[in-house]
Amino acid sequence: MLYEKMKSLPDAGKYLNDGVTFEKPDKTDIRHIDNEMVRIVHEERIKMFDKILSVA
Known about the structure:
Elements: H1 2-8, H2 23-31, H3 34-55
């Protein structure tokens, strides 16, 4: 997984944006397996586009 590779880099935290840590992604990664995360992202994407289209 790309996330795991990035996290394994020496001083990986310096590549993150200001205020971003590995703590939150680690918690998410533990809670969801890959396929479940794909489903969650897909559902949230649909919700986002529904909001966008309802405003337009």
